[in-house]
Structure formats: C-alpha cells, structure tokens
Design brief:
The complex is a heterodimer. By secondary structure, chain A is mostly helical. Chain A has helices at 2-14, 19-33, 39-51, 57-70, 73-85, 91-107, 112-127, 132-142, 153-162, 166-194, 204-213, 215-229, 235-253, 262-292, 295-306, 310-328, 330-347, 352-366, 374-382, 387-410, 412-422. Chain B is mainly alpha-helical. Chain B contains 6 helices and 2 strands. The chains are: A mainly alpha, B mainly alpha.
C-alpha cells in the first residue's frame, strides 16, 4: 500500500505536479504513518520562519537583484568588462563569463541571467566571429556561473538548511568560483585562437570611461565584502542597505527605472521568493519526518555497506548530485537532499562548508545537464533553438566544468583556505 | 499565456487569439482583479516595510544605541507573510516550480491535458489538507493567547500566523480552478475551433 502511494506521488511529480505539493504529500504521508497530526507539520514550518535569523535576507537580496536586472546595469557591466578584458584572445567570451557571473550572483540563477544578458551577448559573440555552437554553449552554461559567489541565494539557502555559517560559505566560495571561471576562460581563449575570432582594441581612456559609468554597480561587491567580512553589519542589514542603494542608484542617479515599474518588480521577485519558500516549507516538514524516522542513518548504513573510503563516497556523491541537479532544479535539490547528506557526509569526515561548495558546484553544472537542466530550457526559449542542438553545444563546457568539479572536490584547501587564513566564523 | 481551449502556451495578452486553435483568453472579472490588486499591494507594503524596519534599526542601533521593541520578531513574521502571499501569487501566475518533462514532450493534445488534470487535482487535494492543518494550527494558537510586543502594541501571535491558511487557501482555490479548466478542456475540446 505504502509502496503504491510513494510510487504514485513520484509519478505525479513527473506528470508536472508542483514540487511543493509533491514534498508536502510525502511529508503528510510520513506524519500519518507516525501517527502525528497534520497540524504539527504547520508548527514545524512556523517555528522555522519565526526563529531563523537569516531567512529574511532571501526576499530582500532577491528584490535588490531584480532591481539591478531591470536597470541597464547589465550594459554598463558588459561595457566595463569589455574594456578591461576584451583585448585578450577570446576576450568577448571571457567578458560573457564575467558579466554572467556578476548577474547570477545577484539574481540567484533563476534564469534571469540568460534572459537579461543573452540578448546582449549572443549577437555580440556572433559579430565577433565565434561559432554558433560555442556561443550557445557558453551562454547556456554561464547562466548559472556565479552561484558560488556572495550573496547568491543558493548559498544562503544551503546555509539555512545545513545550519552552517553563511559568512564562512561566502568566503569558501570565492576561490572555487574564480577557479571555475579561469578554467572556462582558458578554454575560451584556446577556442578563440583556433577559430580566429575578432578581439576588440582597448585604451586607457576607454577603461576610464567605462569604469566611471559602471562605478555605482562596481561598488556593490566592495560594499558587500567590506560590510560582511569586516563584521560591520549583519547579513540582513547589508541586504536592506543594498536594496536602498540599488533603488537610489538605478532610480535617481541613472534614472533607468521609473517608480511606476516598481510594483511589477516587487511582484516578479516575490513570486520567485514565494515559490522557493513554499517548497522550503514542505521540505522542512518532510525533513522533520525523515530525521524522526532516522532515514539518514538508514541510508548511511546502506552506503557504508558498499563504500568505505571518503574518496569513494565523494565520487558517488558527485554522480548523484549531477543527476539530481539536472532533474530537480536547484532549490528543490537543496532543501530535500542537503538535510539527508549533511549527517552522512560528516560520518565520512567531510567538512560541511566544503560539502556546501561541492554541492553548489554540482548544481551549477546540473543546470546545463541534459535532459532537463533549467538553463537548457531557458536557452531553448531565449535563443529559439531546438534543445538537442543545445545538448551538443554545452557538452564541451560541461566536461570542463566536471573536471573543475573534481579538483574542487578533492582539494578541500580551495574551499577552506580563506576561512583558515582569516579566521572567518 | 495559456490558451483556455487547447491548452498550449503562446506569447500574447488577454483577448488575443491563440495561434493554435483561435481560442481567446478572457481577462479576469472585477472580483478577481480586486483580489489580485489586494495581494500585490499587500506584498509590496510588507516587503518595503520590512526593508525600512531593518534600515531604521541600523540607524537606531548605531546612532542612538537603542532599538525597536520586538523589531526582529516582527521582521521574521513579515517574511512569513511575504512567503505565503508570494506562494498565492505564484499560483495565480502559474509560476510554481515543477518538473514539466511530460508537458515538454507532449506540448498539446489529450495526453498533456490529462497529465495536467491529474497533477492539478492532486495539488488541490494536498493543499486542501495543508489548509485544514493550518486552520487547526491557528485556532490552537488563538486559545493560547501568546502575544508579540511591537513598539507598545501587543499583537496576538495568531494574527501574524493567519497568513499561512490565507496563502494555502489562495493556492488551493487557484489549483481547484485550474483543475476545472483542464477538465473542461478535455470534455469540450476545440470549443471555438
């Protein structure tokens, strides 16, 4: 009977039932089996919201990111990176990587990056004589680059779910995030050299001009780093300051957004937040049940019977997460899988902060993984290409990112060096 | 936009004909419009209020060495409101995150409509249970008379919790409506063709 129900719910998930409904159904089933009233499920949700000290940063950071996305900040950031990096071999491709990472960091890899920057960068890449395949692959996989940087929503959600220090996660993401970008940049230069792409010329005057134009946006990462790592403000305070700052800059300084547009920006950003939070709520209830039923320990027992080394566990974890990332979309994967994996990984002696970076890197790649990685679908719509042609276009990028992932996984130093060096808590 | 007749997705606004079958999406009536307006206005006010509350607290703490009584509890409850109002709006705009593998393979036709009908019916049922559970929860806390002080006002905690059933109600009703629409699509295919 229970097997039938569980299979049925899984089936419904694949028929297109919303994630939160599927998770809630599992939770309700679990509560029913343990003879707990369904109202207890709401108690779990409510107590998490009313006690968690960082949850409120999620809507505020999202709002700030959507204000940025709505303005012409993307053009200014692209122009700036073009002036600084455009002269390198494969310069335009590297510019795309940097600009996409910048945007994803602030908009949380919700597809906004590909939608907002795709229209700007794709024609530019075509004009620069990059191949269609390369350009599509680059923009599709870059749509989730920057996930490891501060203050991306997946990092905050991981911190909340795994109950680890978010400041430490921010510091941990810097080196692996930059490493991923460098690896992709090197590959891009290599391809560009071979296919004789056009590089732009640059001058000091151009660098000066574009820097000046983008100065307000470029100040944001500085403000965040100093604020958080300097210990001057809390996460929620810096989030609110960022909203006020982006509002003032984009509405009054650049005059990019009219006040009239704000209700729409609030609605769009809060629809995303509502959709994430309701999944989070359902997953929370499900987690309570699973921990109560000691499911992580049972899974651990099964895994330990087959895998004894930390090395082997990490390989299995990566394979599993890449698969989950392509299938589940990031927030679902985070809120469901993290509470199960964290206690298991600890048994294998893996640092939860390092685990977080492994997790997020996997999901970053999973976004572009066939068959249904979210970036593939968004690119498919944005560039009006058949999804199968995107599979081929993304393949080299995915392979490179998987290699980088292996390095990030087996060199914990990359994730932990800054934390230890600066004693970040 | 979703075509109400054949169920395919197309670019366009209300009152424009669907390119597949010529079906027309009618704009929502005055009541639904009013509900949407109230939801949008409420979530905007709460979000902006939340940001301002945090900013005011930074100023108070740093320059006057004081704070607002119950400020941080209030912020946390405002997130609860944003979350559940947002979930209701996400249901309105069909933006809830799902694995739409099946619908991507079957873009139109009976199989797509049937899969949606089943998924929506299931969601309505689950949300119905959650709605019931959340009403029980609020009623239970209503008798407990717990309060949260904010400035000098004592706010009964159930008044802050009431958004949970409101949110689930909004989602339940909308998915019930979608279920009905999907059923109609299957029962009366190509009504306008």
């Amino acid at each position: 009977m229970i097997t039938v129900l569980v299979t049925g719910i899984f089936l419904l998930a694949f028929l297109g039932a919303p994630m939160f409904g599927v998770l809630a159904a599992f939770a309700l089933l679990g509560f029913h089996l343990s003879d707990i009233q369904s109202a207890a499920l709401i108690v779990d949700i409510y107590s998490q919201f009313s006690n968690n000290p960082v949850l409120y940063t999620v809507p505020i950071f999202t709002f700030a990111g959507f204000i940025l996305a709505e303005s012409r900040a993307s053009v200014r950031v692209v122009n700036f990176s073009q002036a600084i990096l455009g002269w390198l071999p494969g310069g335009l491709a590297i510019v795309s990587l940097v600009a996409c990472a910048f945007f994803t960091t602030f908009t949380g890899a919700s597809g906004v990056t590909i939608i907002a920057l795709g229209g700007l960068l794709y024609p530019a890449l075509m004009k620069g004589k990059y191949s269609d395949n390369f350009s599509l692959g680059l923009l599709t996989t870059s749509g989730s680059l920057g996930l490891l940087f501060f203050p991306s929503l997946p990092i905050i959600i991981y911190g909340v779910v795994a109950q680890t220090s978010i400041t430490q996660l921010f510091a941990a993401g810097i080196i692996p995030g930059v490493f991923l970008m460098i690896v992709l940049a090197v590959y891009s230069s290599f391809v560009a050299k071979r296919s004789r792409t056009v590089e732009t010329k640059t001058s000091l005057a151009e660098i000066g001009r574009t820097t000046w134009e983008a100065k307000w946006e470029l100040f944001i990462p500085v403000m965040l780093m100093v604020g958080i790592f300097g210990g001057y403000v809390t996460l929620g305070e810096i989030a609110s300051i960022m909203v006020a700052y982006t509002f003032l800059v984009e509405v009054f300084v650049h005059r990019d957004i009219r006040i009239r547009k704000f209700p729409a920006i609030v609605r769009e950003s809060m629809v995303l937040v509502g959709a994430i939070f309701i999944i989070f709520s359902s997953a929370l209830a499900l987690t309570t049940y699973m921990i109560d039923a000691e499911i992580p320990m049972k899974i651990l027992g099964i895994i330990q019977a087959h895998i004894s080394s930390k090395f082997g566990f990490l390989v299995a974890l990566n394979v599993f997460l890449l698969f989950a990332g392509s299938l589940m979309e990031i927030y679902g994967a985070l809120v469901v899988v993290v509470p199960l994996i964290v206690p298991i990984a600890q048994e294998y002696g893996i640092n939860p902060i390092h685990l977080g970076i492994i997790f997020l890197t996997n999901l970053e790649i999973g976004y572009s993984m066939p068959p249904v990685g979210l970036n593939l679908i968004i690119s498919c719509i944005r560039f009006e290409k058949p999804v199968t042609s995107l599979y081929r276009a993304c393949l080299p990028f995915i392979l490179i990112m998987v290699l980088a992932l292996l390095v990030i996984t087996y060199v914990p130093w990359m994730s932990l060096a800054l934390i230890e060096r600066f004693g970040i808590r | 936009m979703r075509c109400p007749v054949c169920g395919c997705d197309f670019e366009g606004r209300a009152l424009e004909a669907c390119p597949e079958c010529g079906g027309v999406v009618t704009p929502p009536g005055p009541f639904l419009k009013a509900v949407s307006f109230v939801e949008d206005a409420a979530i905007s006010v709460i979000l902006i209020g939340m940001v301002l509350l945090v900013l005011v607290q930074i100023i108070l703490r740093n320059f006057m060495a004081t704070g607002i009584a119950g400020g941080s509890e209030m912020v946390r409850h405002m997130v609860l409101w944003v979350a559940f109002l947002g979930a209701g709006i996400a249901a309105r705009e069909r933006k809830h995150i799902k694995i739409d593998l099946f619908q991507r393979i079957f873009r139109t036709g009976v199989l797509r409509n049937l899969s949606e009908l089943v998924a929506e019916l299931f969601t309505t049922a689950v949300c119905g249970v959650l709605l019931y559970a959340s009403i029980q929860f609020v009623l239970n806390d209503r008798t407990s008379e717990t309060v949260i002080p904010f400035f000098s006002v004592m706010i009964p905690v159930w008044m802050l919790e009431v958004v949970i059933p409101i949110g689930y109600l909004a989602v339940t009703l909308r998915y019930a409506a979608y279920t009905g629409q999907s059923a109609l699509r299957i029962l009366k295919p190509r009504r306008l063709a």
